[in-house]
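I'll show a sample.
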Amino acid sequence: MAIQTRYAGDANGINNVDAKIDGTLGTIIATGLTKNPTAIKIALANSQTFTAAESGTGGSVETILRSIAIDSTVVMYQVDTSQLSVLVEATGSSTATLATRLQALGNVGVAANVYLGGGVTVSSSNGFKLA
């Protein structure tokens, strides 16, 4: 009888989604997603910061994520004090459209203390970096 060792996973190759094969670095390769992902950075203006309370239910983070989810599929996000990083699987709007939508929200958050109308910056040009 042959001895077989089981490993998690399968024997299939790693599939990439819409990967550039022209040698360009910085492209997000999504092996487990079905659509091309986009990394979005949302930076607060005027020395505003996200607090732990803003990450909870009814906070500014939830409000921003709901605005993104209108036409995008949110896969994951990370909250830092001055920015919110979001990875979306499919995006239906440009960063300019998203910035306009977020700025129209005005004051949001637990105590309405995060003012998005003051010039929130939305960018997807930096890619997705861990740590």
In short: Residues 38-123 form a domain with the Alpha-Beta Plaits fold (CATH 3.30.70).
